[in-house]
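In the laboratory, one determines a bound structure by crystallizing the protein with its ligand and collecting diffraction data. In a computational setting the workflow is compressed into a single prediction: the sequence and the ligand go in, and a structural description comes out. We illustrate the idea with zinc ion.
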Amino acid sequence: MVINFNKKRRQITLVLLAILCLIVIPLVVNHNKEEETIQVVDDKQINNYIIDVIFNDKDKIIECNHNITYVNNTGRTLDKLYMHIYPNAFLDSKICPFEKEEMDQAYPNGFNKGYIDILNILNGDSKLKYNIEGDKNDILEVELDKKLQKGEKYSIDIKYKVKLPNCLGRFGYGEDTINITNWFPIACVYDEKGWNLESYSAIGDPFYSDTSNFTVNILVPSKYEIASTGSIIEEKKDKYRNKKLYKLQAKKVRDFAMILSDKFIINKSVYGKTSIITYSLNKDLAVETNKIAKESIRVFSELFAEYPYDIYSVVASDFFIGGMEYPTLVMIDKTLYNKNSKFLLEYVIAHETAHQWWYSIVGNNEVSEPWLDEALTEYSTILYFENKYGKEVSDKLLQTMEVQSENYRGEDMFKSTNEFNCSSEYSINVYTKGALIFNEIRKEVGDKIFFETLQEYCESYKFQNVNGTQFMKLWKDKGVDINKIVDKCS
Ligand SMILES: [Zn+2]
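The predicted complex, in structure-token form:
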């Protein structure tokens, strides 16, 4: 996600805006891109989701038939399987994933329930037992009817209904868009710590998932255009019922999001083999947005690794927290699409696009180690401005960050999201301080090693999940001790 757009943050970004308006000098960043061995995740050994969805517009309910072929990559025998059922975190105003002071923005028409109603779970014809657990009833424990050996596959059919809340967070609907995100039961990650069963928390992006394949068939009223992770493979019109059936597909992605609207203005362009599609809700910056999205994909493709998907969508949404990343799709607060906030819009789009590398291509546990994606993403945003507008501009941005974070300690960057008291404390420690630490690392090793190491990181862990230890080891092998640099920044 992007920076928290509270009042304080708005002031900061206004300062950044003032700085950027003053200086625009182009500069090309030199870097050497070396061919690395690509460690490909085997297409057949990853989870496969096929989900049939009917969208009931009147009640804002989606009815789903969901099949997951789960591959046991845990390295041990399993008799249970765990899945996140995030919509349940929206059931009650006391537990919903917003801070108190955000509630009015999240629910401008008052609190409104969201939830998932699991109707049944089957393996073939046999019914499976299940339990709903977790702090927010957002973990589904499925009891398997046989032992699942390591490497084996297991097919589960789940029938459920999801109620979307009238909510302007990631999940819900507003006046212009219907945001269907973190909506389906998604397998929890089993890593060196075992099952990760964290609930949907208010601070940060509390998500952690494995790269999977997805096919989603969704029936919607004809008036709606759909923006989604992956591509539209097929679109059929049912004239009699005034509906459209979309077949959507995404391969090797770690989540699947969909945004519906009957007001989208769509702009398209191409970068290499990738279609850049932007969905705006007013004409003001529609063309500009597409250029920014394309530039962002270009900059990061050149700096880190080629963008591996054939589509990238930037979607204006009823969403009050700046921007949010999903694989091949990002949602952006629609209120940023006006000429007065062009810099902010560009900043947010560049940030969310950088997440396509740090979160989507290379994944991590965003709860326990949010710095792995957010600090690097925030620094990548600085790199975007350096590349596009010149070093003088990016240096000014860094100077502003220095001022903001001078009273914060470097090692706090390593905290989990749960250890921060509020979003602004999280943001300044992880994003701002984190970006400055990456800048220090770059200064210490020089551009050549800095960019080569990030390229190596991206290629070595493409489509996988990493942890901080693995990340630090990569730098240690280049003679860089991140802990020492962090100490220096404290
Ligand atoms: Zn972010």
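The pocket of zinc ion is lined by residues 1-2, 351, 355, 374, 377 (CB under 6 Å). Keep in mind that any predicted model is a hypothesis to be tested, not a measurement.
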